[in-house]
Amino acid sequence: MDKISWLAVPTEEGAHEGVRKLWNKAEANLGFVPNVFRAQALNGEQFLAWWNYFNLLVNKAGHLSNIEREMMAVVVSGLNRCVYCAVSHGAALREYGMDVQQADTVAVNWRHADLNAREAALCAFAEKLTLHPAGMTESDLAPLRDTGLDDAQILEAVQVIGMFNMTNRVSSALGFIPNAEYHSKGR
Questions:
Q1: CB-side exposure of 23: number of CA atoms within 13 Å?
Q2: Within a 10 A sphere around the Cβ of 65, how many other Cβ atoms?
Q3: Which H/E stretch holds residue 2?
Q4: Percent of all residues in the chain with a pLDDT value above 70, rounded to a whole number
Q5: Given CB 3.0 to 4.6 Å as the disulfide criterion, which of 51, 86, 140, 167 pairs with 77?
Q6: Residues 77-97: pLDDT tens digits?
């Protein structure tokens, strides 16, 4: 296997039992094990705790649509220049049904994408929270509410944005490389 992280990556034999189960499930469902699953597995318990929260926010039914959550993930990851997350979640955004050209445009500059008012409000909010967290005020919620988002949806948006800011930093700090499979998904 090519190098996927700047740190050691455990082998199947050396990985935590719960991590091995997750790897097997990913292989069965996706046809491959995401490199982020392997690269973070060095600390198995910590990885599984991260995965449980990440999975709850991003992969389970929630208050926002899958496209909305993945769109925010792509915006945050692009702003943070996180190659792993921008590529892998760009693939997810396409797989959930966003047009390929629109998804690619969101990844580079969401303002040039043909977004509806709600999507644009979520992207603007994700951008400000990512780039200027200390500048957030209650008035930043108004554009979200104006497009019909309720408090549970706003909280979920904040949690998704926060999760990706944290995950981007881990991925970038340790040089995680996206799986080649992500580049062609949804195209």
A1: 20
A2: 15
A3: none
A4: 99
A5: 86
A6: 999 999 999 999 999 999 999
